Amino acid sequence: MLVEQAASNSKEQFANSPDLNKALIDAIMETLEAHQIMSHQALNSARVRSGLKEILLEPAQLYEALRERSAPLRTNK
Q: Where would a tag sit more exposed on the chain, N or C end, judged by fewer CB atoms within 10 A?
C-alpha cells in the first residue's frame, strides 16, 4: 500500500498519509515488543548474556573500538 502511495503522490502528500503514520506506529510497537522479549531472555539467562558478551568482544570488536576512542585520553596522561 505504501509503495503505491509513494508512486502516485508527492512527497508531502505521502508524508501526511494516515497509512504512513499507522505503519510507523506499527513498526515501533513491533520493535518494542521484540526488544522486550530479547531483554527478558538476556536477563533470565546467563548463557544468553555470555553469548552476547562473546559477540560484542569478538566479531563486534567492542574492546578495540572503545580502546581506539580512548587513545586521546591515554596519551594525555
A: C
Euclidean distance between CA atoms 58 and 52, whole angstroms? 10
- Cβ atoms 51, 58 nearer than 8 A: no
In the block, cell 522486550 appears at: 36
Average pLDDT score over residue span 18-24: 94
Q: Give pLDDT, residue 77.
A: 59
C-alpha cell at 61: 570488536
* d(C-alpha 32, C-alpha 71), whole Å: 35
Predicted pLDDT at 74: 67
DSSP states of the chain:
-HHHHHHHS-HHHHHT-HHHHHHHHHHHHHHHHHHHHHHHHHHT-HHHHHHHHHHHHTTT-HHHHHHHHTHHHHHT-
Q: Please tell me the predicted confidence (pLDDT) of residue 2.
A: 87
